[in-house]
Write a structure and sequence with these properties.
heterodimer; A: 123 residues; 3-stranded antiparallel beta sheet; 3 strands; B: 893 residues; 26 strands; elongated
């Protein structure tokens, strides 16, 4: 008997989607390898978002499958072997879509949570 | 991009991925070393940070796997697991498979019959069930065949059908002299094979060009069976000449091997153009019309035209169109006494067809089959439930490990399906083995007539069986599976106490249901058995013992009326002179022949028919001494004698029912007059004979007229002789006399009257046999189910029994406790079953004879059997429980 379900449910989609967006965003500044991506997200979120390798690598595979990133082996600054991920033009478009969707969502949540505040107080 | 790299892209590159993880770990470790950690610690820490490598790889792999591959993989692992777990419990698995086999086998057999009669009635013709049939109807609903000229008009003017063909079946004499044999022959229109889509296996089929003018198409198509049996599959058969009814026809082809004609139940061996009807001497039961006029007389019903409706045309549309045509026909070419209107019905409802006769019987069998299936399902539900209870530990562990309930229910259902398939396969095999037995029995009863049932077990039957098996496994495995999955983790893990109330309820319900349904089946079987007994001992109105029935048709050796009369005269004289012969006579029809003989329009002196009434009577041409030979009592007047011949005044004998209905009493009937269509002028009634069962033992009293054969010649007659000694010797003796008189005259059938009557009780016999099988199967299943459920209850209570016995309870008191419960459930089931039976047995209606639908004896027997079964099924496990050692019972945990 297997413990996983055969198709990802809606909740997982949302989580996957968010992680995917974060990864794509991280790659905006240039190719990076898996470990660096995790570290960047962690640093940028002031240590709040800890991306586990168990989620990160399947997510990278998912993005590669969709054609939003490509991977290539290379050398790090410290001369270590690593697989670098690069954003494709298709990936860039997807990132833009994700971003607008995300800000819509955040605005909507903000309106619900702070009904008296003026829209756009998420800054 | 090459195909290989594309393939690679479609799935995870395992080595590359592992490489990447190694790189990740190395970088992470280096990072930590840079922060001042010890190299070894850094490596361990980065590994720890990474988490589960295997799970990550697995998750990455799943990104690339299509969802359906995964679902199939899941199912396979379920099936594998189910097979393994079922193999561990062979008794349970074999019981379920056996129960399903029985339930499905009986239903598959019944379904095969239903298929052969209604769903796919014509072998070798796909979609034959969609055929629609046109027939004429008199004002009071008596169905009539359509004449050939009217058929031609319909065929040429109709727009509702893609085409209308006609076919009528008749018995012909194949060959000449003593080697001649009888065969069923269909006289068909030229478009018959084309509309049906039946091809020739060899040569050609009949074509529209074989329907131009009478006498111009002396051709015949053989059935594959006839070609193989009588001609040893002669490859040069096409072009040979065949003698049929003393006429010579050229073989033009052999029909497709799967095709047996369109007359359900008959094994048709010859197909000839309808245009050969006059030369073969066919009258289609219309004695008024000479053979040569049969194709031009609009009063001579020949067949019921049939065909496929055009796409989009409903039966009602077709009926309206055909009715309009018939109205036009009536206006343009008026015909006195014409049938009132034309009707269109689906093939299985065609008048005179076997499906219409057999369907009531079959529907009872279908109902019985479903009841057996119901018991089988209750049985399986009980087994699954019991098994589920004993697996509570396993299920609890699964749930504790995080399996969802859906997942557990799915697993249990997969287990049921794994059992359902072998059940279905074995059930189909059972049906496949059982049907030939039944068919063989029917063939024996019908001999020497050849019959054919389209009873092959084909994909339709197999599909039905698999569907039923999976359906029952799903539906009846679902509730118990749901129950089993509703396990309270804490209670299972802490103690082994069973939450009794709910499950006990379902279990009891299953016992009650099985008892009730099996009672219903047994009552049905009992009533059928009693009917057969009653039918066997019932008085048919004449004495069939020591009586022969020898059928001949002198026309088959080319006799005309004058020579025929002479032959019969001589035959009567020689047989009468024989030693040991008491009396001898002739008759057109023998009583108790099962099928109704034709009726004729009649006029009765002193009776004014109601407006539009279509008075028609059964009639029989009989010889002198008829009533004495058959020992039919005369209520008034006299029977026919030698002097009632052509030269004498026309006379008739009527039966008691006719005399009473139209003239008040038997005595009043003498001297009154009747007139039958096609049987000459008014006839004076000279005698009244007591009623006889003319076709079937269960028929209602019907008016009947006897005419003297000396005044109304028939070429086909049955010789009845009564004498002493063994009846088989008597039959041989009379047959020898016929052969001595004309060695070349074929004898169609020579048997004792008792044997000849067997066909009339055939349906009862078959029905009773089937019902008995169903009853026995139902009873066995119900007993098995009860035994299983009770013995399980007993097993569950081992602990309780141990305590009771340790406290001093006797064996007997333990047995009594269980027995009381079993009997209570049995009684509840019996009451339900009796109520159900009282409501349902009346549906058996016409299938019962000489026994009321509420026959107390049948009910009492069934109740005794069922209760006995329940008591035995309870007593055995209870007794075993009582004999357990209290200590071992207590130590059980």
């Amino acid at each position: 008997m297997t413990l996983h379900s055969s198709r990802p449910d809606a909740r997982a989609d949302l989580l996957h989607g968010t992680l995917d967006m974060l990864i794509l965003r991280t790659l905006m500044w240039g190719p990076q390898h898996g470990y660096a991506i995790g570290q960047t997200i962690r640093a940028q979120s002031s240590e709040v978002l800890q991306v586990e390798a168990g989620s990160l690598y399947p997510a990278l595979q998912r993005l590669a499958k969709k054609g939003w990133v490509t991977a290539k082996w290379g050398q790090t600054d410290a001369n270590q072997r690593a697989k670098f991920y690069r954003l494709t033009p298709e990936g860039k478009k997807q990132l833009l879509r994700e971003e607008s969707r995300w800000s819509e969502l955040v605005n909507a949540i903000a309106r619900v949570m702070k009904p008296v505040a003026a829209p756009g107080t998420d800054e | 991009m090459g195909i290989r790299s594309w393939l690679k892209r479609r799935r995870l590159d395992q080595d590359d991925f592992e490489d990447e993880i190694r790189a990740h770990l190395a970088i992470a470790a280096e990072d930590k070393v840079a922060d001042g950690a010890d190299r070894r610690d850094a490596q361990l820490a980065s590994l720890k940070d990474f988490g589960n490598v295997t799970l990550t790889t697995e998750a990455a792999r799943r990104v690339w796997t299509p969802w359906w591959v995964e679902a199939v993989h899941d199912q396979f692992s379920d099936v594998r697991y189910a097979v393994r777990s079922l193999a561990k419990n062979p008794i349970f698995s074999l019981t379920v498979v056996g129960v399903l086999m029985l339930g499905i086998g009986l239903n598959a057999a019944v379904f095969t019959m239903l298929k052969g009669i209604a769903l796919s009635p014509i072998a070798g013709v796909a979609g034959a069930a969609r055929l629609a049939v046109v027939f004429a109807e008199t004002s009071n609903g008596r169905p009539l065949s359509v004449s050939y000229p009217d058929y031609q008009y319909l065929r040429d003017h109709d727009h509702a059908f893609t085409g209308l063909f006609g076919s009528t079946v008749g018995r012909v004499n194949l060959g000449k002299g003593r080697s001649a044999r009888q065969a069923w022959c269909e006289l068909v229109t030229g478009n018959y094979f084309q509309i049906l889509g039946v091809r020739a296996g060899r040569g050609r089929t009949l074509l529209p060009s074989d329907e131009i003018a009478p006498g111009r198409h002396p051709v015949v198509v053989l059935s594959d069976g006839l070609w193989r049996r009588d001609f040893a599959a002669d490859p040069d058969i096409v072009g040979k000449t065949l003698e049929i009814n003393n006429d010579f026809l050229t073989v033009v082809g052999v029909a497709d091997p799967s095709f047996h004609g369109t007359t359900v139940v008959y094994d048709v061996e010859l197909f000839v153009p309808i245009m050969t009807a006059p030369q073969l001497g066919f009258r289609f039961g219309s004695q008024e019309t000479t053979p040569s006029a049969i194709l031009s007389d609009r009063r001579a019903g020949v067949f019921e035209p049939e065909g496929y409706l055009r796409p989009g045309v409903t039966l009602a549309n077709a009926a309206a169109q055909v009715d309009a045509l018939s109205a036009t026909l009536a206006r343009d070419r008026p015909l006195a006494d014409a049938a009132e209107r034309l009707r269109v019905v689906p093939f299985w409802r065609a008048p005179f067809g076997a499906p219409l006769i057999l369907l009531p019987t079959l529907s009872v069998l279908v109902a019985m089959g479903l009841l057996v299936l119901l018991i089988a399902c209750a049985n399986i539900a009980g087994l699954v439930l019991v098994r589920g209870l004993s697996r509570r530990g396993e299920i609890a562990v699964r749930l504790a490990l995080g399996a969802t309930r859906t997942r557990v229910v799915r697993l249990l259902i997969v287990e049921n399906l794994v059992l359902a398939l072998p059940g279905a396969v074995l059930g189909v095999l059972l049906a496949q083995r059982g049907i030939p037995l039944l068919v063989g029995y029917a063939e024996q009863l019908a001999a020497p007539q050849r019959i054919f049932f389209n009873l092959g077990v084909d994909s339709l039957v197999i599909g039905f069986a698999v569907l039923v098996a999976c359906g029952s496994a799903l539906v009846f495995g679902f509730v118990p599976a749901l129950q089993s999955s509703r396990v309270d983790l804490v209670s299972v893990i802490n103690t082994d106490a069973t939450p009794r109330a709910a499950r006990g309820g379902l279990r009891s319900g299953l016992v009650v249901a099985q008892v009730a349904v099996s009672l219903l089946l047994l009552v049905g079987a009992g009533l059928a058995t009693r009917s057969v007994e009653a039918a066997r001992t019932a008085n048919p109105g004449f004495d069939p013992g020591q009586l022969t029935a020898i059928s001949i048709d002198v026309k088959q050796n080319g006799y005309d009326e004058a020579r025929g009369r002479m032959f019969y005269r001589k035959l009567l004289d020689t047989v009468r002179a024989d030693a040991g012969i008491e009396s001898v006579t002739l008759a057109e029809f023998a009583p108790m022949g099962f099928l109704d003989t034709p009726v004729r329009r009649a006029e009765i002196e002193g009776y004014v028919p109601r407006r539009g009434e279509d008075l028609a009577l059964l009639a029989n041409a009989v010889g002198p001494d008829y009533f004495r030979t058959l020992r039919i009592p005369l209520l008034a007047g006299r029977g026919f004698e030698d002097r009632d011949d052509d030269a004498a005044a026309p006379v008739a004998v009527v039966n008691g029912t006719l005399a009473e209905r139209f003239w008040g009493s038997a005595a009043n009937a003498i001297g009154k007059r009747v007139r039958l269509a096609g049987a000459g002028d008014w006839r004076t009634v000279i005698g009244v004979a007591a009623d006889v069962k003319y076709s079937r033992i269960n028929e209602p009293p019907r008016p009947y007229v006897y005419l003297p054969v000396l005044q109304w010649y028939r070429s086909n007659l049955i010789l009845h002789a009564r004498g002493g000694g063994p009846v088989d010797l008597l039959v041989e003796q009379v047959r020898a006399r016929v052969a001595a008189l004309d060695p070349d005259l074929p004898i169609m059938r020579a048997s004792s009257m008792a044997n000849a009557m067997r066909g009339a009780t055939m349906l009862y016999d078959l029905m009773a046999t089937m019902l008995f099988v169903f009853g026995a199967a139902g009873m066995a299943l119900a007993a098995l189910g009860t035994y299983g459920l009770v013995s399980y209850t007993v097993k569950q209570s081992t602990h309780e029994i141990g305590i009771r016995m340790a406290l001093g309870a006797s064996d007997w008191s333990v047995v009594r406790a269980f027995l009381a419960r079993g009997v209570r459930l049995g009684a509840a089931g019996t009451v339900l079953g009796v109520v159900g039976a009282l409501a349902l047995t009346r549906l058996l209606g016409s299938l019962l004879f000489g026994v009321s639908a509420t026959d107390p004896l049948s009910f009492a027997r069934a109740v005794a059997l069922v209760l006995g079964g329940v008591i035995v099924a309870t007593l055995v496990p209870a007794w075993r429980a009582a004999r357990t050692n209290p200590l071992s019972a207590l130590r059980h945990q």
